[in-house]
Known about the structure:
Elements: H1 3-10, H2 18-24, E1 36-39, H3 49-65, E2 68-71, H4 85-95, E3 103-105, E4 109-111, H5 123-135, E5 139-142, H6 153-163, H7 177-185, E6 191-194, E7 203-208, E8 212-217, E9 224-226, H8 234-244, E10 249-253, H9 260-270, E11 276-280, E12 284-286, E13 292-294, H10 305-311, H11 315-326, H12 330-336, H13 361-373, H14 377-391, H15 396-400, H16 403-410, H17 429-432, H18 450-463, H19 469-482, H20 489-494, H21 503-515, H22 523-530, H23 532-540
Parallel strand pairs: 1-2, 10-11
Antiparallel strand pairs: 3-4, 5-6, 6-9, 7-8, 12-13
Amino acid sequence: MDNEKLAQLLFPNNRLTVEEIEKKYPQRNLKKGAEVTRFAPSPTGFMHIGGFFQCIIDRNIAKRSGGVFYLRVEDTDKKRELIGASTIILETLKRYGYLPDEYEEKGVKVVGNYGPYFQSEREEIYKAYAKKLVAEGKAFPCFCRKTDGLNDVKEKREKMFALGITEDKDVCRNLTIEQIEEYLKDEKPFAIKLKSAGNGQNKIKVHDVLKGELEIQENGEDAVLLKSDFMPTYAFAHAIDDHLMGTTTVVRGEEWIPSYPLHIEIHNALNFPLPKYIHTPLINKIRENGGKTKISKRIDAEADMRFFAKEGYEPKALIEYLTNLANSNFEIWRKNNPLLDVEEFPFDGFNITANRPVFDIVKLNDISKDMISKYTAETCYEKLLAWAKEFFMENVSYLEKDKEYVLKVLNIDREKEKPRKDIYKWSMVLDYFDYMFSAPKAYQIDEVDKKKFEEVLRSYKKYIDLSDKDVWFNSIKEMASSLGYATDNKEYKLNKEKFKGNVAKVCEFLRVAVTGHKDSPDLYEIMSILGKDKVLERISLIV
């Protein structure tokens, strides 16, 4: 068959040549050892935490080597694309301080010289390389119905069996040029497929940076390169784009390992050097039955990166947690460097955990609460207000009308040597400190303590004094003693039967009356901020 003629028949209007394309994408001028990585999501929904996990690795490999980290949106599957998904991706990267070195904001701006950074805008490039493969006899048109052409699956298999062709080989690879011309005259749609040289039976050795040498089945499939709408498949597009954009390392999930032989064969057919591949483990979750499965976008709220923003998690806390999941050296480093920013961690992109990490929100909460506990009240206020403006507008005026009061509330048990660690997301703050803004709606008091509780509150109206912490506490002790409560804890432990309780129990009653809870931050600070009148008002609601 005259492959040059066939290429011209299939692509009569494609004038862009591979040689012209290569000139437009010169080799990057980077220092030796610099890595070029890309985050290449599909805009088919929200940004998945697994994608962001890989993004952290991508960015750090590029950053630590003095290279380039770019965003490429793989939007060739128009049937599954969701409007606005690419915007969500870019906004998420901005939120976490991961704005790439090169990216495209569709219709607004392009940053970088290796775009377009949306694959749908690179259609002519893919056609040029497909045409070249056809001209070299490495690809062919397929008119089968599976790709909107002629034959159904049963007919196709019967013909292949009659010709002695293995199941992975396509019957259309044997069409004559005359048959192809007839199909084209009839305007039959077609796809372009790779003419695979493999048989799908032999084993080949492939290399993965993380997993080392792997032995897997070679590709034997005549895989689709261009679909019938002439948009490329992932396998074809990523090979071309990674080559032209100078990608040196590809980070992707381990679910792509079975496709690795096909990607190798496509690279070989195109005469492209193979980038390094890191197939990362998938993030798992422990289920109620004790089993471990991949975190699911259908059932796990945490799979959607927007969940953490809406809940008000600190971006750096999530980055720190995922960095810890990715790199086994992190935990030791953090222990030795408790005050350093996560950005200071010497991330080793080629020393990633090989085991499937388990996402544990309790551990994330611990990291986030430790981080927030170190913030000043002013920092907390700014972050809380910014979060409210984005997700909780009905409380913005509530926060802005008396900033000084809110700062006092936020500073309870803060800016101390051992600050209280209760808050791990901004959505908790208003609920956590609700008693600072309105009287409790319920009280954590045991039924057996109810009479003692009311007795203490009636008496405290005469003893309340908030002028000084020592004065305040001494007045409570004086009242406690008059009511039959122990003021010496050692004595109380030795002779419990002599007392109604101890001073701690009295303070608990006062705390419940003011906050509704048995446990709270420093009671004196709470009462001082509320003021004597408000404290008495709350006690009067009970007795």
